[in-house]
Amino acid sequence: MEEKKSIWTDSYQMSWYDTDITKTANLAAICNYLQETAWHHADHLDFGLRKGNEFQYIWAIVRLLVKIEKYPGWTDNISVKTWHRGTEGLFAMRDFEILDALGKRIGCATSQWLILDPLTRRPQQAVVDREILKLTRHEPVMQEQPEKVQISGPVDFLSSEKARFAEIDMYGHVNNTRYVEWILNTIRPEIHKQNFISSFTIEFLHETKLGDEVDIFGQGLINENPGMPGNQGLGITLVKGVRHEDDQVVFRAKLNWKER
């Protein structure tokens, strides 16, 4: 019988399609690595919620906080470590470390998840074997938690996105990392070239399905340079996506910037 691991590690090499104009991995690629590694560990612990080729339940990420000290470059090798950190009510907590080829930490993340019924999309209580629960590691990777993103006051219209076929995942809705891509695309290339996102918090609030239109609004250093004199290379951007049909907020995000 395979021994169950409390910490799961996956290795990745930065491919050309995971990098952007800065020749480093973009944030959406990092988020994909985190969630791929999370799935591998959940499946290893037998609560991947899959029975054969069918999903009995859906793991849905609700909030994610990512901190990056250094983005890996093209062809760089990294490792992503993850562990289950217990539950808070219906939320399952999962943490991550991102290490470079020498084992030095270059980033970390913490996240909150819900189990949803695939038909009703309503939250469900996780049923996990007691022996598996013993493998829970309660040590947090960081002090902060992925909290609600507060956006008050006026916002600027940035863009409008329509959910297309290639953006829909196996659950029938827009894959959450597509939201990250939509956010990145609202920021002028010059800002990306001169600065990087050092901390990123996102809340996933509602589904977006094929054909839905999402209007994206922002506040803060959207059309400015976060690295301009007097800003010490720091800036905050707040972004939200609103479903055009019913004005439902589908995501909110907070980006903290640092000068490259």
Description:
Residues 225-233 have low confidence and may be disordered. Strands 1, 4, 5, 6, 7, 8, 9, 10, 11, 12 and 13 form an 11-stranded antiparallel beta sheet that branches. A two-stranded antiparallel sheet has the order 2-3. Strand 6 and strand 7 form a beta hairpin. The protein has 260 residues and is mainly beta. It folds into 2 domains: 1-147, Hotdog Thioesterase (Thiol Ester Dehydrase, Chain A, Roll); 148-260, Hotdog Thioesterase (Thiol Ester Dehydrase, Chain A), CATH 3.10.129. The protein is built from 4 helices and 13 strands. The termini are far apart.
Describe the SSE topology.
Layout (H helix, E strand, L loop, with lengths): L7 E6 L13 H18 L5 E2 L2 E2 L2 E11 L8 E12 L2 E9 L5 E12 L6 E2 L5 H4 L22 E7 L13 H10 L3 H6 E10 L8 E8 L14 E9 L4 E12 L1
Antiparallel strand pairs: 1-5, 2-3, 4-7, 4-10, 5-6, 6-7, 7-8, 9-11, 10-13, 11-12, 12-13
Helix pairs in contact: 1-3
Summarize the entry for a quick read.
The protein has 260 residues and is mainly β. The protein is 15% helix and 39% strand.
Query: How does CATH name the architecture of the largest domain?
Result: Roll
* The CATH C-level class name of the largest domain: Alpha Beta
What is the CATH topology assignment of the largest domain? Thiol Ester Dehydrase, Chain A
Please, what is the average pLDDT? 87
Number of helices: 4
Instruction: Give the CA-CA distance, first to last residue.
Output: 48 Å
Oligomeric form: single chain
Q: Which structural class best describes the helix and strand composition? A: mainly beta
Uncertain parts? 225-233
The description of the largest β-sheet is: 11 strands, antiparallel
Order of helices and strands: EHEEEEEEEHEHHEEEE
CATH H level, superfamily name of the largest domain: Hotdog Thioesterase
**Count of distinct strands:** 13
Question: How many domains would you count in the coordinates?
Answer: 2
Strand content: 35-45%
Q: Measured on Cα atoms, how large is the radius of gyration?
A: 18 Å
Share of helical residues: 10-25%
